Amino acid sequence: MTLTGLCERRSLLDHPCFYRSAGTRWGRVHLPVAPNCTIQCNFCNRLYDCVNESRPGVTSRILDPAEALLYLDRLLKARSDISVVGIAGPGDSLCDPERTLETMRAVHAAYPDLLLCLSTNGLNLAEHVDDLVAAGVTHITVTVNAVDPLIGQRIYAWVSINSMIYRGLEAAQLLLSRQEEAMSRLKGRGLTVKINSVVVPGINAGHITAIAEKAAEWGVDLMNCIPMIPVQDTPFECLGAPADAEMVRIRALASLHLPQMYHCRRCRADAVGLLCSEKS
Ligand code: SF4
Ligand code: SF4
């Protein structure tokens, strides 16, 4: 608090995902306001919703923006260790951009001291960068699973733009070109940017270094290599998860190009608390 009684905004360095040093003091809360997605990844199935399941894309319920603010009000009365409010699905946070922007604006107006963070696949990001900055967003994560459309076409079943469905190579090319445009705008506005790359054995596991190299060219600040969790009833169900030793090797190679995040908890879309807490 300042002498005038106004809250100062948390330092950008107080984001526990982007800065490991903040992880023991500061926690995050995800507001699950984004149920739908603009693309279909071959490892993702958001139909399963189990309170015992902890992985991205899972939530106990969807909140509308007003409910999300009420939930946050109650949460912040109960705990003082939250530094960042994020929207990370369970779908894509910019599939229904007005829901997300309305939520961010309301949170920023009520709690200007908190950092705001967003995760997205990047398809609809470029056109909303200015709106997100105006809403107070400081940290963005874009999931980039391929920077070669020939590999991307094996990961994405389809991409939807303006109610048109694209498949195959065209879908992967469209997604990549929009991600590239978004990166340029994000860095132009001075946002802190992380990429998440889901490591899929036999599909993109040998391609992660190339992603890191390209992301470094884009000016990305941090990379989070996430081992795929094989999920029931998805095309990649039988591929299995990458071995721990393989992840160590992949991260070591990627770190030659970009700083790596090693403490990701693969959180649910309604995660809350310190990254080391049991509930996350
Ligand atoms: Fe699932 Fe996220 Fe891929 Fe959408 S972008 S299909 S929510 S993993
Ligand atoms: Fe942070 Fe990883 Fe959890 Fe996202 S999934 S909030 S990057 S720890």
Automatic annotation (TrEMBL):
Family: Belongs to the radical SAM superfamily. NifB family.
Task performed by this protein: Involved in the biosynthesis of the iron-molybdenum cofactor (FeMo-co or M-cluster) found in the dinitrogenase enzyme of the nitrogenase complex in nitrogen-fixing microorganisms. NifB catalyzes the crucial step of radical SAM-dependent carbide insertion that occurs concomitant with the insertion of a 9th sulfur and the rearrangement/coupling of two [4Fe-4S] clusters into a [8Fe-9S-C] cluster, the precursor to the M-cluster.
Organism classification: Bacteria, Pseudomonadati, Thermodesulfobacteriota, Syntrophorhabdia, Syntrophorhabdales
SMART domains from the UniProt entry: Elp3
Gene Ontology molecular function, alphabetical: 4 iron, 4 sulfur cluster binding; lyase activity; metal ion binding
Keyword tags: 4Fe-4S, Iron, Iron-sulfur, Lyase, Metal-binding, Nitrogen fixation, S-adenosyl-L-methionine
Cofactor: [4Fe-4S] cluster
Domain Radical SAM core per the UniProt entry, residue ranges: 23-265
PANTHER family (alphabetical): FEMO COFACTOR BIOSYNTHESIS PROTEIN NIFB, FEMO COFACTOR BIOSYNTHESIS PROTEIN NIFB-RELATED
Domain of life the protein comes from: Bacteria
Xref: PROSITE patterns: RADICAL_SAM
Name this polypeptide is given: FeMo cofactor biosynthesis protein NifB
